[in-house]
Amino acid sequence: MEEKFVILSSHTYSRAILLKSILEQAGIPCFLRQVESPGGTVEMHIRERDTLNADKILSGLEMASGKQKEPFLKTLRSIRRILVPVDFSPMSQKAAFYALELSRTLKADIRLLHVWFSNAGEPFVFNEVYAYQLNFEKILHEQEEEVRIRLEEFAQSLRRTAKEKKIKNIHIDYDLVRGNAIDSILSISDDYKPGLIVMGTHGRNRENRPLLGSTTARVMEKSKFPVLTIPLDYDVASFNQPKKILYITRFEESDLLALHQLIAFVRPFKVKIYCVHVNMNDSMVVDEVNMKRLREHFNHEYKEYNIECGLVETSDIIEGIESFIWEKNIDVISLVGRKRNLLTQLLKPSLSRKILFQGTIPMLVFKDQQ
Do residues 196 and 225 make contact, with C-beta atoms less than 8 angstroms apart? Predict the structure, then answer.
């Protein structure tokens, strides 16, 4: 938790959003903080070690003019975007409608993405001889058209809902690609550059065990962009804008980066953030010192935000978190996705996986940028 942040510059909100996107494309995390002033000035905060590179990038931008600035303006227009992978299952439909509700406040456009994989070209056994289906291209074309029609119908239903709910000034479109689901979602994300990816989760299987093979979990682990997961059991019909968010900290450097991102993301919702560390029979003295430092950081940097820091002491991490969620009536859980060996993940699921498949609470996962 030794990472130091500095104020790079101050701008109007629209200008700060533009510069933020440019810096992040260059691999420099940038966080905005609104200052109480007549002009609504926004401060740009970056890591101290990124100051030199950031200054070079912004200096080059100031000297640009005309057509040179067009790529930057295009970037500005592309910031408020939500990508929603859908497979027409109930869970992906819930994710899409949750994204629609978020767009009301975020003023974000929505792109639906369906990854289509056809098995028409797979061989089958007939009298112990492999044979391939005839008219392969025709079959593929027909299957693709069927999926496209279904995707268009789903997009239309989302647009109708937006109209009924009087959600204005957002654009809903879709993309249909053929290939591997995980690779395709990550590839489209790199091209579309969403501010957020919203995906559904299955919850549990029939044996009441976490579904380790989930596409959502794989995307969550690999995505460069924040991923918001919506459990199948979440009641979209009773959706309310998030008011209370639980952030689970491990007192690591990446937590400060994620917390900066979280605060910027939830700013339009005027939420209360609970920053909590779960102590499992470790030294409470060390945790109390770390939490005190984190609390002092928030009091200095974000005193205008409603942030409460605390420790949860428990012998079972899931039970401790669940108790806190119900006690505080939490709307969204947030944490940093950690990099782990794939085999380790499969044999011993991470905390994020356990929470991902265990509750009815949406979870927002940020990339580990260490």
Answer: yes
Q: What is the distance between the alpha carbons of residues 317 and 313, in angstroms, rounded to a whole number?
A: 9
Classify burial at 208, counting beta carbons within 10 Å of its beta carbon; exposed 0-12, middle 13-18, buried 19 or more. Answer: exposed
The Cα 49–Cα 325 span in angstroms is: 36
pLDDT tens, position by position, 28-70: 888 777 665 545 677 888 888 888 888 887 776 655 544 444 5
Residue 199 and residue 138 share a domain: yes
Same domain, 88 and 56: no
pLDDT digits (tens, 9 = 90+) for 226-265: 899 888 878 877 777 889 999 988 887 778 778 877 887 7
Q: Based on the fold, state whether residues 202 and 317 are members of the same structural domain.
A: no
pTM of structure: 0.73
Identify whether the C-beta of residue 29 lies closer than 8 Å to the C-beta of residue 3: no
Q: Residue 275 belongs to what H/E stretch?
A: strand 272-279
The torsion angles phi and psi of 335, rounded to 5 degrees, stand at -165, 175
Compute CA 1 distance to the chain's CA centroid, rounded to the nearest angstrom.
23
CATH number at residue 70: 3.30.70.1530
Is residue 214 one of the residues assigned to a domain? Answer: no
Structure tokens at 162: 């937006």
* Domain, as residue range, for 344: 236-367
In a shared domain, residues 62 and 201: no
Structural domain count of the chain: 3
- Whether the CB-CB separation of 243 and 272 falls below 8 Å is answered with yes
